[in-house]
Design goal:
The protein is of the alpha+beta class and 317 residues long. It has seven helices and 14 strands. 23% of the residues lie in helices and 26% in strands.
Length: 317
């Protein structure tokens, strides 16, 4: 499919760059929630040290007796990286036609990458904000009817604290992260109990509140997603939909670094064949359509290692 424009007449030499009706630098958080873990094989298994190592062991020792011995409790977790990608065909005619307006090659590849990021973001949101995966009191709490975060006077700090404690009792590890959408952040910033954490302040700016929120909740970080996509059917007027929304939030222990030896929710398991790198762009020529084809391709699976390292909250209806 060639480059598509609506209402485009003649290329204008006075336009040096493309005008964007969107900003492609939205805050995508999929890889913040599931940090990348590179693997050598497309499908195999990873060894994960489990919570069962928290079991007590009798350390008493009698003179002359053998010491009690322990074992390392680990399990193999299967993964299968799935191919994902899109192609952007750029015909010679399109390249020349829009050359005085913008670089159709650069702009097309940027939109290709944007679409891949949007799809990944939706996939991760559906994975973590999932009441089928996180179910039962230890893993899931619904306060939408009693303490909705949209209500300015709601006591939201105890809700976050209780969720952290439930996860800690399941794992021995205290969650360090709150995952939520930008729309929910705005509701939290308007909360009277949050504002009350600044006694005597003559002016409370939004930047002050954002910087203080992790400390107020006794967390290391907030991971805030603000990505929007067009949910309208083809040919219909633009309809912006918030990927992360304001219905759910999650407290979680997020893994750190490039390996999975530390405790945490999970990983983006990425296979990079032939040293192509993550999310490589491949270009090839297609003479039958007089086009250069740009392909964005990757192999990955977002994998939850253990649901106990997170607690899902439904905070609004």
């Amino acid at each position: 499919m060639p480059v598509q424009y609506s209402g485009y007449a003649v290329p204008r030499a006075d336009l040096g760059e493309a005008f964007h009706e969107f900003q492609p630098d939205q805050n995508f958080i999929a890889e913040q929630i599931f940090p990348v873990r590179g693997v050598m094989k497309k499908a195999a298994s990873l060894s994960v040290i489990t919570r069962k190592n928290l079991k007590r062991s009798d350390t008493k020792h009698a003179n002359g007796a053998a010491f009690a011995r322990i074992g390392l409790d680990a399990k193999d977790m299967d993964y299968k990286c799935v191919s994902e990608g899109l192609e952007y065909p750029l015909t010679n005619e399109d390249r020349e036609n829009y050359a005085s307006d913008f670089d159709a090659e650069v702009e097309g590849v940027q939109v290709l990458k944007l679409k891949m990021l949007l799809e990944r973001e939706c996939r991760v949101k559906d994975l973590v904000f999932n009441t089928t995966t996180w179910t039962g009191t230890p893993l899931y709490t619904d306060v939408s009817g009693s303490i909705p975060f949209a209500t300015a006077g709601s006591a939201i700090i105890p809700v976050i604290t209780a969720a952290k404690e439930k996860s800690r009792l399941l794992t021995g590890v205290t969650p360090d992260t709150l995952i939520l959408g930008e729309a929910l952040v705005l509701q939290i910033l308007a909360n009277t109990t949050i504002k009350a954490c600044f006694p005597g302040a003559t002016l409370i700016t939004q930047e002050m509140l954002r910087q203080a929120l992790p400390g107020i909740f006794d967390l290391n970080q907030l991971i805030v997603g603000n990505a929007v996509y067009d949910s309208a059917k083809e040919g219909r007027a633009f309809s912006g939909s918030d990927i992360w929304g304001s219905t759910y939030a999650m407290v979680a222990k997020v893994q750190k670094g490039a390996t999975n030896i530390n405790a945490g929710l999970g990983r983006s398991i990425v296979w990079t064949p032939m040293d192509n790198g993550v999310d490589s762009i491949i270009q090839y020529r297609e003479e039958q359509t007089d086009s250069d084809i740009f392909r964005g391709q990757g192999f990955r699976q977002e994998k939850v290692f253990d649901t106990a390292f997170a607690h899902l909250l439904k905070v609004n209806v």
